[in-house]
Design goal:
Two copies of one chain form a homodimer. By secondary structure, the first copy, chain A, is an alpha+beta fold. Chain A has two domains: 252 residues, L-amino peptidase D-ALA esterase/amidase; 118 residues, ArgJ beta chain, C-terminal domain (Ubiquitin-like (UB roll), Roll). In chain A, 33% of the residues lie in helices and 27% in strands. Chain A is built from eleven helices and 14 strands. In chain A, the strands form two sheets. In chain A, strands 1, 2, 3, 4, 5, 6, 7 and 8 form an eight-stranded mixed sheet that branches. In chain A, strands 12-11-10-13-9-14 form a six-stranded mixed sheet. In chain A, a hairpin with a 2-residue loop joins strand 10 and strand 11. The longest helix of chain A has 20 residues. At the A-B interface, helix 8, helix 9, strand 12 and helix 11 of A face helix 8, helix 9, strand 12 and helix 11 of B.
């Protein structure tokens, strides 16, 4: 991972000391030439200042730099927060000699506090002086808040005779819930791709990956997933249905999304919930997300209890009309519930629940639609982490 | 409380040993004459066998007996579960020499296990032999699962020259969420009241009390609130808008609902969330419930952290379009957030959060509608309780 580089991109990281934690907390991603950009943002109606600014700027279709900070979300910070976000991008643009409008900003951390601008300005100077082609893992670390490990996925592929690189990095941990789920995810590639194709494909892929994970049902004010494609490899720009690149991007996004669920605050188990035989995709998603978010299900999984009644109760309360007498539930390959009734597989199921990765499969016998969600268990550790997050 | 009695009603409790816990776990409420009955039930589309049976029978408008058990919900138990519920009511009806159709049943506890019918039959014999006019607190105790205290409210009032009694008992603790919230609540009165008036008023009152509380966002398969009015005092039956009785019933229901929120599993704090100046009642309720259910808000309150950013994020994600720059948030009387920005009241707020009862007031400046929700904090104890509920 240390030697990853994507032609045409330079990066740097630094310590701005935004919080008391002594870690690198700001990062800069720079493309030597304007790159096509696409992004999706939180649907929370309260959006952080950097989200509003970046959302406006990516409409141009091009970007060249992204400044990212952890430790402070710059959300609910009013006009001053908006001025601060703009000022940061202006400093970056000036230092890199690129247009302000091509300069983006993403923030994550505590809501409701102004950015410590003097510290950040000093940090920006460092960022501008230390740009280099490698060190992506440091970027992944710099954007972490309560994540326990950096999330990096790197893939290479071929388009005709040219080989392309695709890098994804993300951070997650808390305030994670389907509806533009990850707090921050960045995809960097040297492929050339037509803007509207990139934009539509990216939205689709985000909805099938990041929007399918949940840690705690809380949607952040800062969620952003963003892709930069600078076309450095000089291929004929992709225009539609390019299965090799789409698959590569999908896999990268899915791997990152799963990492976020796995690294949910305090989590000890990674949970996959598959809903099969649903009457519609929407119904399948609704049921999968409701089960994934049920804190009674999540605590039972933490305790290793095959308490399937809680899964049934969650299925029943999500607003989809189901027939309980038709429902089968599997834990892995163990048929825990058949036709709505317990199947005396509790001992097997208990053993299965000692694993770190749990798959719950729900069969509704109402159709042929399917959806999968990713989640984690809810632990006393999660509660403690979030009870004393700021202290 | 020990001497509460409601003319015309007899009660009894017994140990059926449904679970390993050595406590009284079945109860019988009997009205010497057919009483008017009204009820509301869970909106979970998966309903327990006793809910389905009782729901059918109360349509007659009259009832004379309620059998209640804790320890086993008789939910997701298929045809056998339905036969068991019927058999129990048949035994009660036979013993009391009343019509089966006037005999109701409510269950609470683990989902997905068949009732231990032999034990329950033995218990029923005891119940039938030990009916007496007092001991309501024992009924409140017998229906408890993880509740830490019995929930009983008793009021007296006057209608003209006649005095009436109104008793409410309830159990809550887990799987509590607005949408017919309490698992079980019973109201017993000796007033005479016209059936359709009782029925409509009761629904209204439940929606403003039990449906405004949440512990964990999970709606049970067994929720039932039920009122019996036997008319023993011989008043002219109430027909409409009787403010004295309505207020008495509302207050009783609200007190019980608050007790349930206060006694949420593992809870250390009772939280009231008021949303003011909302554009509609629906918007006010949505925001209040989303804040009440946010596990990030609930954990922050447990930790005593005035992390208002989480309150803002919850307001923003619930689907109501709000203007964050207009929002004020108070903790008690402390103006924590004004016009969407922090107000440097953190020290005061931290001190306030050491209290056992917390009030969060949200002002939206978007209209004049108001809603209040009741909830509790989320603690490591909740997680532990629910991780090992069945062991």
């Amino acid at each position: 991972m240390k030697n990853i580089f994507i032609p045409g991109f330079l990066i740097s990281t630094a310590k701005a000391h935004i919080t008391a934690v002594n870690k690198e907390d700001i990062a800069l991603i720079y493309s030597k030439i304007p790159a096509h950009v696409a992004a999706t943002f939180t649907r929370n109606s309260i959006k952080a200042a950097p989200v509003k600014l970046t959302k406006r700027r990516i409409k141009l279709g091009f970007a060249q730099a992204i400044f990212i900070n952890s430790g402070n979300a710059n959300a609910c910070t009013g006009k001053q927060g908006e001025r601060d976000a703009k000022e940061i991008t202006a400093l970056i643009a000036k230092g890199l000699k690129i247009p302000k409008k091509y300069t983006l900003i993403c923030s994550t951390g505590v809501i409701g506090e102004l950015l410590p601008m003097e510290k950040i300005k000093k940090g920006i100077k460092e960022l501008l002086m230390s740009l280099k082609p490698t060190g992506w893992e440091n970027v992944a670390k710099a954007i972490m808040t309560t994540d326990t490990f950096p999330k990096v996925v790197f893939k290479k592929g071929r388009i005709g005779k040219k080989s392309f690189s695709l890098l994804g990095i993300a951070k997650g941990a808390g305030m994670i819930m389907p509806n533009m789920a990850t707090m921050l995810a960045f995809f960097i590639t040297d492929i050339a791709i037509e803007h509207s194709y990139l934009s539509n494909m990216f939205k689709d892929i985000v909805s099938q990956t990041f929007n399918r994970i949940t840690v705690d049902g809380d949607t952040s004010t800062n969620d952003t997933a963003l892709i930069l494609a600078n076309g450095y490899i000089g291929n004929e720009p992709l225009r539609k249905n390019h299965s090799i690149f789409e698959e590569c991007l999908f896999e990268t996004a899915l791997e990152l999304a799963k990492m976020i669920a796995k690294d949910g605050e305090g989590a000890t188990k990674f949970i996959t919930i598959e809903v099969h035989q649903a009457p519609s995709l929407k119904a399948a998603e609704k049921i999968a997300k409701t089960v994934a978010n049920s804190i009674l299900v999540k605590t039972a999984l933490y305790g290793g209890e095959p308490n399937w009644g809680r899964i049934m109760a969650a299925i029943g309360r999500c607003g989809v009309a189901v027939n309980p007498n038709k429902i089968d539930i599997y834990l892995g390959n163990i048929p825990l519930v058949q036709a709505g009734a317990g199947n005396n597989k509790e001992d097997e199921a208990k053993k299965y629940l000692t694993h770190k990765e749990i798959i719950i499969k729900i069969f509704l016998r109402m159709g042929d639609k399917k959806a999968t969600c990713y989640s984690c268990d809810l632990t006393p550790e999660y509660v403690k982490l979030n009870a004393y997050y700021r202290t």
